[in-house]
Specification:
About 75% of the residues lie in helices and about 0% in strands. By secondary structure, the protein is an all-alpha fold. The longest helix has 26 residues. The protein is elongated. The chain binds heme C (HEC). It holds the Pfam family Cytochrom_C_2. This is C-type cytochrome.
């Protein structure tokens, strides 16, 4: 139990695989909260990155690379936390997560593909391409939410 609660404070600093192991020791409700926090972190990093790609903040290569890295870790953490038996309160996930696992995996794979592309163009410093890639990524969020998250 101690391990689980310590873990909750540091979710962004561990790999998805290590996380999945520790998540399995948690109450299902806690697992839901962990993945919701991870999605919030994902949204927050994407929002911050948006300021750079729109030129509202001066492009800083180290900073934007760090943001895409955070997005990568947050998304891995969120996806790893869809453990069986965790579609419980206070989840906003739909039953389709368990009823259509292949389609759900496909939506994750599509997101990962868009995120890799975004990471690539961001690291090349191409701000205009990054704007386009971030738009594509955001569409992959919405497309998953359409079937798998309650409106
Ligand atoms: C593969 C599917 C999928 C993708 C891709 C995805 N999400 Fe989600 N998202 C979900 C599901 C399912 C939930 C509901 C989780 C829960 O409540 O158990 C969710 C929840 C959220 C939440 C609510 C968290 C809270 O406060 O409860 C936010 C914010 C969010 N996602 C943002 C994003 C953003 C931003 C992206 C893209 C950068 C994204 N998501 C990509 C499936 C996805």
């Amino acid at each position: 139990m101690l391990k689980a609660s310590m873990f909750a404070v540091l979710p962004l600093f561990v790999s998805g695989a290590a996380l999945a192991t520790d998540l399995s020791a948690m109450e299902p409700e806690r697992v839901v909260e962990v993945r919701q926090e991870a999605f919030k972190a994902l949204k927050s990093s994407a929002g911050e990155l948006r300021l750079y790609v729109l030129g509202k903040k001066d492009w800083q290569q180290q900073e934007v690379d760090s943001l895409t890295g955070q997005m990568q870790r947050a998304s891995e953490e969120a996806f790893a936390a869809f453990l069986p038996g965790t579609l419980v309160y206070p989840t906003e996930a739909t039953a389709a997560v368990e009823q259509e696992p292949e389609r759900f995996k496909q939506a994750q794979a599509n997101f990962q593909k868009q995120l890799s592309h975004l990471q690539q163009v961001v690291s090349s410093g191409d701000q205009q391409a990054a704007e386009q890639a971030l738009g594509q990524l955001n569409r992959s969020c919405k497309s998953c939410h359409n079937g798998f998250k309650q409106p």
